[in-house]
Design brief:
five-stranded mixed β-sheet; 4 helices
């Protein structure tokens, strides 16, 4: 279950992006986009799963396709991804200290958090949230 604390200084893969294509993951590129998606989720009563990651982080790359699969498996949740290097202020304001960090929100408030690329724990948390969102919407 890996996580990254600091980028490598060589910057060799700094320009590469994590690929979330084929899924239902919204890539957040600005604070305004973040605010809009959170607001939209709040209005729809949906739980947000936000993946704070970095292009240089090996464990982030490893879990990207799994996160994308989960976004398709649990469409009742809103899946976001944030590059911590692109949105440093947002990441700092949410106390993101390592990548990947999965942030779970409801009504604009943090309800849970998972640090590291722990696939079983990530799906366990997402499944519990998906089940709770089903029961609260029926």
């Amino acid at each position: 279950m890996g996580n990254c604390l600091r980028p490598s200084q060589n910057g060799s893969d700094k320009d590469s992006k994590l690929n979330f294509s084929g899924g239902n993951v919204h890539v957040i590129g600005s604070g305004e986009e973040w605010d809009a998606k959170i607001s939209e989720a709040n209005k729809e009563g949906k739980i947000v799963v936000a993946n704070f990651s970095a292009a240089w982080c090996g464990p982030c790359k490893m879990i990207t396709s799994y996160y994308t699969e989960l976004s398709l498996k649990y469409p009742q949740l809103v899946f976001l991804t944030v590059d911590v290097d692109e949105l440093m202020d947002l990441s700092s304001s949410l106390d993101i200290r390592a990548t990947p960090t999965f942030f779970f929100m409801k009504d604009g408030q943090q309800i849970d958090k998972l640090v590291g690329a722990n696939k079983p724990e990530l799906e366990k948390k997402i499944l519990a949230l998906a089940e709770s969102s089903k029961s609260s919407s029926s």
